[in-house]
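Handout, section B. The chain below has 381 residues.
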Amino acid sequence: MAAASVRDIRLDLFRGLALWFIFLDHIPTNIVSWLTVRNYGFSDATEIFVFISGYTAVIAYSRMLEEEGWPRTAARIYRRVWQLYVAHILLFVAFSAQIAWVSIARDTPALIEEMQLMGLGDNPYRAILEAALLKFRPVNLDVLPLYIVLLAAFPLVLPIMVRWPWFVIAVSIALYAATCRLNWSLPAYPDEKVWYFNPMAWQVVFHVGAACAVFGPGLSRLDRFRAPLTILAIAFILFAAFIALSWQYNPLERLVPTWVARIIYPIDKTNIDILRFLHFLAIAWLVRIAVPIDAPGLKWPLWEPLRRCGEASLLIFCIGTFLALSGQVIVSHYEDSILSQILVSIGGIAIMCVAAYIAAWFKRGNARVPARTRAANGASK
């Protein structure tokens, strides 16, 4: 538990990077999205975000569990869950209004169907209820509900995780396997839909991240197998890159043997196909080797915008989701020109960074106020 309380600057850096990637990937036909991991393998930024969310959950609450007990820790977690829920509802309202406004202003009713908001017009009262229950969401609003469900269950998992992490991993993998095998899912709205990110499957990424935080320096035991694990990770990443690039280039697709395609397809995202999970773990292993926790380059000023975005992850995710639709509209207005895609991508990331710096400025100000209050109280005594 002491190891879990140590702050790892890499968490904020890679969470910020994941938020940038999510923004870029949510703009259709965006040439800048070729800089993200999505086009070079089976996994994408979602796995990064969920894994780090599990890791940071242990860091944030394990010490409180030890010092203040389970009831207070659970209360703090559910306060965070409530903040996430409110943020999701506000984002849903703003996002839906943005879609409606663009559809009306540009006379493009197909946009409402493309963004999966038809249910709001067909049965608005039912849609509002289902939105409040996290079952009705337009496109690109699936990550926060997943995080809300995972964090809502975390108070029950945390006491077991800090004592018996291997037991939690075993149960998590068993639930993941049963979900994939039996096709368990959570219902969504309209009635024929299911959750795009199935929490019963994606929990394995969250809990593996949490377990890694508990293990802390104990993960160094794997270094005795560093050479074979690194070779396997590189080989699997190269294989995944070849398959992913074959989806874009027909000459590569013809090189994929039929028996290989029959084995690996479909690569499901809803239940996080095992190939996606293994691909993420391979990347995580190589990142751990290449970027140790004490790497001096982590504190270079060049990476500060990424770190700031990672520190204000909820705010930046909401802003990035809203800006992605704005970017989609702007790019389509200019007929998907490459220049518009580049400018929209740079402009969106710049706005996200400015918002992150403003959030950090407010946070520093709020931290000073209690300190001044304590000093004044001490002087009065």
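Note. The chain is about 70% helix and 0% strand. Compare this with the example in section A.
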